[in-house]
Amino acid sequence: MFTFAQSYLHTLDPNAIEFSDSFGIKWYGLSYLTGFVVGWLMLRWLASSGRILLTVPQVTDFITYTVGGVLVGGRLGYCLFYDPSLLVDFSGTFPFWGVLAIHQGGMASHGGILGVILAMCLFARNRQLPVLHLIDITAFIAPPGLFFGRLANFVNGELWGKPLAPALQEAPPWWSVKYPEEIHTLPLETVEGLVPHLANPLATNLHQQVVIETYAGNPILAHNLEPLLTARWPSQLFQALSDGPVLLLVLVLIWLVPRKPGVIAGSFLIAYGILRITTEVVREPDDGVALTLGLSRGQLLSVLMLLAGAGFLLISAKFGGKRVGGLLASCSNKRISSSSPDADSPS
Q1: Given a cut of 70, is residue 254 above it in pLDDT?
Q2: Interval 311-335: pLDDT, tens
Q3: What mean pLDDT is predicted for residues 198-227?
Q4: Global confidence as pTM
Q5: 210 lies in a domain?
Q6: 106 and 140 in one domain?
Q7: Most confident range, picked from 250-254, 278-282, 318-322
Q8: Which domain holds residue 188?
Q9: N or C, where is the chain less crowded by C-beta within 10 Å?
């Protein structure tokens, strides 16, 4: 029976719908789809109310560019920043190249940001719109996607939080999390003590069998496994809250009144960088990625984001042009052509 003096044992299925052992619809993919749909709805409202320079017919093309930037940039960023081995991981099974195996997880938000900026430069050149304003728009609609992505990380049981303090391990609080996969780090002698509770005690890989049966819902096994596991911070949920509702609230407050193009993008980078650095304190550093100056890879990249955000604000102050937007204003922003003296160059 659940009490408030025990951790949550993670047994969530990453598959929303499973057609076979190797194929199904995963929550990870649905999280990205939901984020893009919410972003598209936000864009349509902003465009139809005249608060941005996009027209309603342009919204779908814009979100298509955004999707491409997020997926390509996010995946390449993960491969370059966290797991370069995927760049040379070739196999005889679909999708044949590790870089393309997005269905197995592995996206970097910092890479996604870089991908979106490049996509917006291309869109601005094709549509003759100010690139800083387009980057502002993508920054404003990004928090819902970040929120759903972090929830998917939790469902997948990835990006674990750090262990709670030793004093809390004996009676961990209800909000802490334990992961059955941690059994792989325990010695075989410990795992053998769980054999009497296995439905298949003759499995060749006892560690993996314990994980399989725990996720399949073996209650007696789960009860005996839980004391062997480490209670951890639910860092994915913390980052879902900070990267989603908190970050969106910051941007809404800043864009209540019209701002020069580039202000929202710069504010996004600074706020997201600060929030990411803060929440990374309770997140386990990525395997195989060494700390730099005491900072995790995510924190280090976030420091660079802070600098980039400051750069956006400086560029906006000098070249931003006319103020645009204003969520409280019932306005109709006239399109700024690239030839206008108040328009910034898309290059």
Answers
A1: yes
A2: 999 999 998 888 988 898 755 555 5
A3: 94
A4: 0.83
A5: yes
A6: yes
A7: 250-254
A8: 180-228
A9: N
83 lies in the same domain as 187: no
Q: Mean pLDDT across the stretch 106-131?
A: 88
Q: Is residue 305 part of a domain?
A: yes
Instruction: Name which of 280, 177, 159 is nearest 232 in CA terms.
Output: 177
In a domain, 3, yes or no: no
Residues 153 and 273 in one domain: yes
Whether residue 141 is predicted with pLDDT greater than 80 in this model: the reply is yes
Mean pLDDT of 216-221: 94
Q: What secondary structure does DSSP assign to 269-298, as a single string?
A: HHHHHHHHHHHGGGBPPPTT---BTTB-HH
Cα distance between residue 111 and residue 71, in whole Å = 9
Place of tokens 């999390």: 177
| Predicted local distance difference test score (pLDDT) of residue 104 | 67
With 0-12 / 13-18 / 19 or more C-beta atoms within 10 angstroms meaning exposed / middle / buried, residue 319 is: middle
In this structure, is residue 286 part of a structural domain?
A: yes
Number of domains composing the chain: 2
Length of the chain: 347
Name the burial class of residue 13, with classes exposed (0-12), middle (13-18) and buried (19+) by CB atoms within 10 angstroms of its CB. middle
Residues 55 and 111 in one domain: yes
Q: What is the DSSP letter of 82?
A: T
